[in-house]
């Protein structure tokens, strides 16, 4: 495991409850997301449509992405293809990198401290880290989705949950959806559209000390752990429903309050720790949002039409990017709303 990956590991919950669902790049033809195994919907589907943001004569179209998505589904890209043919720029999904602020030899010196970063401090097992009733419920869902994996019993509760969700998604008939972004980027290249990255890099000055401090520290992650194992079955059903809603363009069904509440609980467990505050992880969501809004302001000032790709969980909700755009004076129309 590289130093950069390990530092990213410490900040994983800033982006999602279960980064098992993080996007991966898949090879995709120019007209569809790769065909995958069936859940509920299958065949060619329209996708969610595009949010329209306007100020004067300038327009921003936003494609909200979701992961996981149904297997055995092909996404009909005619709408986004046509929009890109009249577009000046494509704003790519926000990207966060957490890197050690050291040279090559400093990174080499960091490597020995990375071993066991997921494990509970003082060698505690999950059985020793969580209440007996919570552990009993954990054993039930672990048997169902993970099976006999003794390694995970040494993990911190929050990392054990990640393994649980990875395995559960693999068994649920859902699939990662990085092909959506890849397809849009390929279409943009076909039309000669400028692609604008939105990247935020957090440099950690003393990564070795941060990793050592994290390994010794405790996280208030029992609530996250308990809520996650109690919700796993219902949440998989919610994921399937949202995936089908994305595929069929059902905007109203894309909200997911259960996941939003659980995400907040787990994010608080990660960001309230002293180590997270020490290296600046608590500021990352705000900084990323500001970077994205600045990219939108710049694009709207100079382009007649711009397209942006944004994960739905960042887009929706009271603190989402759409609300921030409205607060800045932009008019925002959902895909199912008329002009």
Task: Please provide a written account of the structure.
- The longest helix has 27 residues, at 222-248.
- Helix 5 (132-145) packs parallel to helix 9 and helix 9 packs across helix 10.
- It is globular, with a radius of gyration of 21 Å.
- The chain has helices at residues 3-10, 78-84, 104-110, 126-129, 132-145, 157-172, 178-190, 207-216, 222-248, 257-271, 274-279, 284-302, 312-315, 321-327; strands at residues 43-45, 51-55, 58-65, 69-70, 73-75, 89-100, 174-175, 194-204, 305-311, 331-333.
- It has a 6-stranded mixed beta sheet, sandwiched between helices.
- Residues 1-39 have low confidence and may be disordered.
- It has one domain.
- It has 14 helices and 10 strands.
- The chain has 339 residues and is of the alpha/beta class.
- It starts with a helix and ends in a 6-residue tail after the last strand.
Quick rundown:
The protein has about 350 residues and is an alpha/beta fold. It has helices at about 5-10, 80-85, 105-110, 125-130, 130-145, 155-170, 180-190, 205-215, 220-250, 255-270, 275-280, 285-300, 310-315, 320-325; strands at about 45, 50-55, 60-65, 70, 75, 90-100, 175, 195-205, 305-310, 330-335.
Tell me the layout of helices and strands:
Layout: H1 3-10, E1 43-45, E2 51-55, E3 58-65, E4 69-70, E5 73-75, H2 78-84, E6 89-100, H3 104-110, H4 126-129, H5 132-145, H6 157-172, E7 174-175, H7 178-190, E8 194-204, H8 207-216, H9 222-248, H10 257-271, H11 274-279, H12 284-302, E9 305-311, H13 312-315, H14 321-327, E10 331-333
Parallel strand pairs: 1-5, 3-9, 6-8, 6-9
Antiparallel strand pairs: 2-3, 2-10, 4-7
Helix pairs in contact: 5-6, 5-9, 6-9, 9-10
